[in-house]
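Quick illustration for those who missed Monday's session on complexes.
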Amino acid sequence: MELPRHLAVIMDGNGRWAKRRMLPRSAGHRKGMDRMISLSEHAFDLGVEYVTLYALSAENLSRPKEELDGLFALFCKYFGENVERLVSGNIRLRVIGDPALLPPEVVRLAREGEKATEKGTRGTLVLAIGYGARQEILAAVNAAVHGGKELTREEFAALLQTDGIPDPDFLIRTGKEKRLSNFLLWQCAYTELFFSEKLFPAFTNADLDRALADYAGRERRYGKITVSTDGDRSC
Ligand code: FPP
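Prediction with farnesyl diphosphate bound:
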């Protein structure tokens, strides 16, 4: 079965999952973290090379302080408890997003995690925290303008926070909504999209397998025309 080399996931629905169980939103985020760890390990075990997870958008930073503090504490817990596991699994960690939007402790632990895992060669886990695609593109445009010369597509991509990471082949969004929410807008130009009704804490490894089987059945044409056996032309 053909696998995406790079899988991206918009992990939406933690809050609704908790609300349906009369639990605080923080319980949904905690359960989401467990799922995110298991799903990413499952994807790497299958042979996916890059897994990018949207953990917090730049726009999410306008949520109530209590929720944000809980999320920041969860990120710190994640880095504190999982970096060793990434090292022993030979997985490299990259954290993208605007560090200026995050508490210094989160940024420090993220940088330490990146350093500790930098030799990982089996796969790369990319966590987008305080990330916004328009902000990322604008920063790259400003850097390009200061550089004063016309750039190729590859040179421009190298100015983005995802420098060195291939574009996602497959993007899954859980939680019913069908939008990109300022996630990897440049990088997803030809990414195959998959929307699941399931809330992220309820999205199982078997759900991931089903989504990957859907991906395997798709024909990626990148805007070109193919002629199918019955003579239909499509692009
Ligand atoms: C969106 O659901 C989810 C988030 C804003 C947080 C995602 C975080 C995790 C999955 C947990 C930990 C991650 C790491 C990297 C340790 P929502 O809260 O918007 O849900 P709703 O749409 O149902 O309200």
